[in-house]
Amino acid sequence: MDRRPHPHRRTPSSRRPTRGSLRDRLALAAVTLATLLVGAAPAVGQSISDGTPVQVSGPRATVLSSDARHGRLVEAFGDVRRARHIAVIVPGVGWTGPLLRDEHEAGRRHPAVQARTLLAEMQRSDPHTPAAVVVWLDYDAPAGLDADAARSDRALDGAPRLVAFVDHLPRSATVSLVCHSYGSVVCGHAAPRLRVSNLVVVGSPGMDVWTRSALRTRATVWAGVAADDPIGLVPHTRLEGFGHAADPTSPSFGARPLPVGGAHGHNGYLAAGTDSVRAVAQIATGQGARVPVVGGASDGG
Question: Whole-model pTM?
């Protein structure tokens, strides 16, 4: 049995809770879950329906790994072996391998569209250095608006595979993670073991920690959320296994603020022409110092 302390597991109390206090805690947990799901409804609904077809030029997807049984898929855009700058996108709720592979009438929420847009921006930011973008979906993302999205089980299960994948990327490359929505929960659990230079979270419900230092990472942590992203309705709490703790964009969390001008809704962070995609490209190409300061707390790493 693993007896190591878990960052989100309370030390068992020597005093057994009374029936009344246990009932109260369960009731509060139920209310918290309901609040989370009601608050998340607009964000998830938009995430599923946001899809006017977008044409983005760029390289064809190269499959790096595929698990048809579990519906998982990892694709690369650009030559990962030659790349010196690699951005790894970790998508959130609603994505499966078959959906990722299907680019017919793909809209801006499609990770392949986002990957090509980010790659083009990285190439503009540093045209003389080979770059690649990976869409990593080697975990079982929550299907939609259900308890799985409010809990962390799927993130805990996927985090070791994310660590293993990053470990096998070329050591000569600078690696940055771009974690969207529930993907940021996966990144939060993987963070202490990730060999990355930057950790960027956008549209995040939380990373299951209360402060940036609790991520126990040497990476520079960036966080941003659009003013009209409905994910902002999700309460930042953690109770009886539900919720994902603090808002990473809160000044008290301690991440560097990511500019999000021009980004709209829950899926607009990597859309062409936005301040956010430009900032992510600068971060991923080692030019984070050029990212405009937009106020907020400074990252400690």
Answer: 0.85
